[in-house]
Design a protein that fits this description.
249 residues, alpha/beta, Rossmann fold, six-stranded mixed beta sheet, four-stranded antiparallel beta sheet, 11 helices, 35% helix
Length: 249
């Protein structure tokens, strides 16, 4: 479904992705872990078309998309960012944001597009993520980070995406909000067999979600674990852990 061949990305003399090659099969849910500076966000930027590699090729469904930009790939790749403000328009209402997302891959003028999504359709989208219907008339800026991410997920999945990128979607959320988002996302991805890649710093999230784990280090995928192999490793073996004993001492 997605294939990267010998991808190299550098910023000046700093090499971020180094001759990276990998394949994502249809229906895969791959969780990517790695430390700060490992190249995770650059990897997603490259897949989404925000960054063009200096060398290498990228294929989606067998089509060479290496030279397509972010907008040209938007019909194939959907991304949710860790920064909740990047996933929606803060001054618009929830209903308006859902409407814009609904027409993101269709032709519609901004105002008419925002008006066309029926209240019933918007209500169903909100109910699907377990939220109260009263939230539809609130502006995104007035909501909590957890609420914004749930709505961002509803926006991103109104049309089943060909490839869904979850870029540390829980990084800015408290544990309860993160649990709610991941529970809903996991159910949706599984039931619709959405090909998904998710970045996380949390090894326990990596162990509990997806069918594969990739470890990215210094711009290279150094370890891969299948669903069966995941059962045999401890989360601390992935990217380390916080040593609470040292903190307490």
């Amino acid at each position: 479904m997605l294939q990267l061949k010998n991808i190299n990305v550098s910023f000046g003399r700093h090499h971020v992705l180094r001759d990276l090659s990998c394949t994502v099969e249809e229906g895969d849910f791959i969780v990517i872990v790695g430390g700060n500076g490992a190249g995770k966000s650059t990897f997603f930027d490259t897949v989404a078309g925000k960054i063009k590699p200096q060398s290498g090729s990228l294929f989606i469904d067998g089509v060479d998309t290496t030279h397509l930009n972010e907008q040209q790939r938007s019909g194939m790749v959907t991304r949710i960012f860790q920064n909740t403000t990047l996933n929606s328009v803060g001054i618009f209402t929830v209903h308006q944001n859902l409407a814009m997302a609904h027409y993101s891959r269709r032709s519609a003028r901004l105002v008419s597009g925002m008006d066309v999504l029926s209240c019933k359709a918007a209500e169903i989208l909100i109910q699907n993520v377990g939220m109260d219907l009263s939230i539809l008339d609130k502006t995104m800026n007035s909501l909590s980070g957890g609420q914004r991410q749930l709505i961002a997920f509803a926006m991103a999945t109104q049309l089943i995406p060909k490839l869904l990128l979850l870029d540390e979607p829980t990084a800015a959320l408290d544990p309860q909000a993160a649990t709610t988002l991941l529970k809903h996302a996991g159910r949706f991805i599984t039931s619709h067999r959405v090909t998904t890649m998710m970045i996380t710093h949390d090894p326990y999230i990596a162990m509990s979600m997806g069918n594969k784990i990739w470890v990215l280090e210094n711009g290279v995928i150094t370890k891969t674990f299948s669903a069966e192999e995941k059962k045999k490793i401890h989360p601390n073996e992935l990217i380390g852990h916080i040593d609470y004993a040292q903190i307490a001492g």
